[in-house]
Amino acid sequence: MANTDSLNVRVFSLNCWGIRYISKHTTQRYAMIGELLSKEEHDIVLLQEVWSEKDYLSLKKKLAHCHPHSHHFKSGVIGSGLAIFSKHRIHDTFLYRYSLNGYPYMAHHGDWFGGKAVGMAVLKLGSLTANVYVTHLHAEYCRDKDSYLPHRVVQAWELQQFVRHTSAGADVVILGGDLNMHPEDLGSRLLMSYTGLRDSYLESAKFDGCEDGMTLIADNAFIGKGSIGPFEKGIRIDYILFKGSSKTDIYCDFMSTTKGSAPDHAFPYSDHEALTAALRVETHTPSETQRDGQRSSPNRDAAAGKTAGLVDMVTEARTEVKVGLHCAERMRRTATRTGAMGLALLFLELAIAAVPWLALGAEQPFPRTSFYLLAALCFAILVTTALLYVFYSTELKSLQGAEDQMRLAVGGLQEQLRGSAVAQPHAGQRGAPEGRGPGARGPEEGNRVPLTDPMK
Amino acid sequence: MANTDSLNVRVFSLNCWGIRYISKHTTQRYAMIGELLSKEEHDIVLLQEVWSEKDYLSLKKKLAHCHPHSHHFKSGVIGSGLAIFSKHRIHDTFLYRYSLNGYPYMAHHGDWFGGKAVGMAVLKLGSLTANVYVTHLHAEYCRDKDSYLPHRVVQAWELQQFVRHTSAGADVVILGGDLNMHPEDLGSRLLMSYTGLRDSYLESAKFDGCEDGMTLIADNAFIGKGSIGPFEKGIRIDYILFKGSSKTDIYCDFMSTTKGSAPDHAFPYSDHEALTAALRVETHTPSETQRDGQRSSPNRDAAAGKTAGLVDMVTEARTEVKVGLHCAERMRRTATRTGAMGLALLFLELAIAAVPWLALGAEQPFPRTSFYLLAALCFAILVTTALLYVFYSTELKSLQGAEDQMRLAVGGLQEQLRGSAVAQPHAGQRGAPEGRGPGARGPEEGNRVPLTDPMK
Fold first, then answer.
1. Which residues contact A364 (CB under 8 A, 6 or more apart)?
2. For the whole model, what pTM was predicted?
3. What is the ipTM for the molecules in this complex?
């Protein structure tokens, strides 16, 4: 660990609740947020729910002096709502849209229209490459009967895949955003275990903020009682996560959240609390001997235990996805049947209409009004069910795809467990299957941390 | 370059044209393809247009002895059509769905329903990590008036981003598939320049196949004259691309294509020709001095020239995307206007209906039939235009997103040009802006190759 350099990075994350004309006091709150950011001059600002391009542009203008670099990630019908502001030059950006994101007909929930995604920006922090991710997962509207759970689990799965596969070359990895998942939720566990990202709140040497790091609290004036369900005081669903690499170690020196109010203002910045983490990045020249020494660490039982834990976790995720699959299949079957009934009704109607005309002539008065109304109804049913069929087919494909990937992951992990149980000699060897499991952070060698000490 | 090891990898790629009930002789052709693959036992088989899960599963069964590992990538309504079969264990897979992919109402072109994507599989080739990509881009139906060009350019842009950002940790990178782009097309140039991938056909020491490496040829019995437009003999749109890393060099020893017929069969394997590339991977221990020596290479003019070329290329891509933006905006405006007209018509009709009822009483006979027909028409217009509005908004967001990213890329490249013109001393330093351009293959250090010799 010779040549240690130290670098401080202050990261801010906030779900801005920026739905124009619907969110309360949007304009004033954006002004407050702009003021706060101008004053605090964080290195990296990660915002969610910046739905309006206009609001983004006005923030950009206001922050030009302190955050000259920024990016607004666009997707879906109204945008992803994700934005990043940075003191440091943004060299590259990339957006991954989650394959599942609620239902378009649940317009009052609006998630589908937002095109939820994870945005990535590649920055330079001094001589270090930092991959910064900002994301916002599907909201949880009812924890007891969460019909979006399979979608959110698949989003968490895709998020860990994206971070893992794109961060191989990064010296510093930072992820911030509204995950809409509690710390112990399946999706959070998947994300943390697979990527090796660490939670600022848990890691911070010092913390000043809401109890238990909560970010959606009852004391916030914008929070309705319904949003936090059975949780009296609040929940923790917003995070700043980080990890280093073989070249860097990262520590969280201080973390804070707002506490349901903004100083000198009548109302808070948002319905979510804002998070700030002061990270310290220590650079060192990795010494090969040391790394090899770490790798041949004898604590294999712990590694096997961890792998077994991962098997359980992915199996749990597969179960959730399968629940989603059954649900989507049922919905598609219902759409098919309803469509078939609509078609049958149309044929029946045509037959009834054809009988008096062809057989009995025009003696009886033809019930025109009912005929046209019924025909319109049949057409409406046919069109709606066709659209729903297409939508559910897409949902099914995405769920099946995620399930396939999870099955592959479980297979690999089990292979790994068998391998470590049977043949120990190969364990330290580069490229041995032991190193390819999710405990390793992606396919890279440089970032790979041994399974025995994955949370280092 | 001490400790050089050599490894041979045979890669196969074919667009299978597997549209059940529509493609000709699908069952027989799949049987032929299965036979061929069983006999040839390639290391990696990349297939496109395997639309049916059943066909994939029957291939999987047939190839179980020679290709025990496989994956079918699922997306869209009917699937991505992408499949990979491998001799070597697949450790991980990941799918990136392109944000733009034609129009759902162009059902006869079908691309939208296919959910075009790029699939990635992480394999182990001996001790090396190989990232293998398989993709299929939007088809070109009319080269002169290609309304899908902006979509295909954005797909190529996203493809290069995906490959660049996910391949940082790989020792070997292989991409195969039907790019639906000629070698000199903008999208091909973007992909090759940004990723540093090399074209097997151009690199191969020996080639046996169609003239100019064509993969869609007039001599193929399934090819209609229209598909290849003004190109008399055919076009080259299928590729096997590859690149090594700081640890590996890759060479293509031999490449072949089928020539419009299958030996001992009445018809060819597909409407596309199959590609086979014999790659040789040489592993060496990278010597720091040598890499530093390369990096301080004095050939800066060539690097600046290359960067300037990239600026032109990305600018050209931006122009295409802007054309797409204008088109999408026009279409959305048209949808909005038509919807407004539908609404106006509905109100007018209601007003007309209300007048005799309210003012004149029921003396005049009310034209019920026309009333209901017109109302149904108005509703149909409203629903259709609402759906189109949503669709075009999504298209706009994706195009704007791509344009933003391209603008950022051009800015970075120009900065780089200015940097290299003004301040030369920093050039070799790690993390200097010179190294962050697209000439560098992603944010990784290990894989970074100096701009002066990017095609090495």
1. A356
2. 0.88
3. 0.87
| A98-113 mean pLDDT | 89
Q: Does A272 participate in catalysis according to the annotation?
A: yes
3-class DSSP assignment, residue B343? helix
Contact B161 A94 (CB under 8 A): yes
Q: How confident is the model at residue B306 (pLDDT cuts 50, 70, 90)?
A: confident
How many other CB atoms are found less than 10 A from the CB of residue B430? 11
- In chain A, residues 15-44 whose CB comes closer than 8 Å to chain B: none
A99 → closest Cβ in B97, B124, B412: B97
Contact B431 A401 (CB under 8 A): no
C-beta of residue A141 within 8 angstroms of C-beta of residue A321: no
pLDDT classification of A360: cutoffs 50, 70, 90: low
Q: Which residues contact B347 (CB under 8 A, 6 or more apart)?
A: none
What mean pLDDT do residues B324-330 have? Answer: 94
Enumerate the residues of chain A whose CB falls inside 8 A of the CB of residue B372.
368-369, 372-373, 376
**What radius of gyration do chain A's Cα atoms show?**
26
Calpha distance B177→B120 (Å, rounded): 12
pLDDT value for B168: 93
DSSP state, B70? Answer: E
Map tokens 């909560």 to a residue. Answer: A214
What is the layout of strands, in order, in the sheet containing B90-97? Answer: B90-97, B117-125, B128-136, B172-178, B238-243, B198-199
Encode pLDDT of B389-413 as tens digits: 999 999 999 999 999 999 999 999 9
Pairing verdict, β B248-257 and B275-283: antiparallel
B131: nearest Cα among B82, B98, B165: B165
Determine which helix (DSSP H) or strand (DSSP E) holds B208, and give its type and residue range.
Answer: strand B206-208
Nearest to A117 by CA among B401, B387, B407: B401
Give me the count of residues in chain B.
Answer: 456
| Closest partner CB to A373 (pick from B165, B372, B405) | B372
Q: How many CB atoms lie within 10 A of CB A319?
A: 15
| Alpha helices (H) along B124-199 | 149-166, 186-195
Which residue, chain included where needed, has tokens 């009886």? A364
| Euclidean distance between CA atoms B105 and A435, whole angstroms | 47
| pLDDT over 90 percentage in chain A | 66
